[in-house]
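Milestone M4 deliverable, item 7.
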Amino acid sequence: MEVNRVTPPISFQLTNERNLLTEQLEASEQQEGLSVHPGKEDIEKMISGVNQFLTPSHTSAKFVLHEKLNDYYVQIVDDRTQEVIKEIPPKKFLDMYAAMLDFMGLLVDKKI
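Output delivered:
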C-alpha cells in the first residue's frame, strides 16, 4: 500500500488559517499605528462617534461600570426622558452572573 499524501484534519487547518489571519491583522495594525487594545482616548472617540450617530433619534450611549464584576456594559438612554431604552448586555444577566460567581466562591472557599 502506498500513501501519496496525508492531509491534516480540517480543524487543524482552520486553526492555522485563523492564527495566520490574526497575525496578519496585528502586523497591519502595527504598521498603521493602530493598537490591538485601544486606549482611553480611542474609546472616547468611538463613544462620541456613536453618540453623534444616535443624535437624530434623540438617544445616546452611556458606558456603566458594573460594581461586582468590575466590567462595563452599555446603556442606550433617551435624551428627553433619561429613560434607559436598552442595556448591552442586560444588567440582569450581569447580576445573575455575579451571583453565580459569589455562590461558586462560597462552595469552593467553604471548609469540608
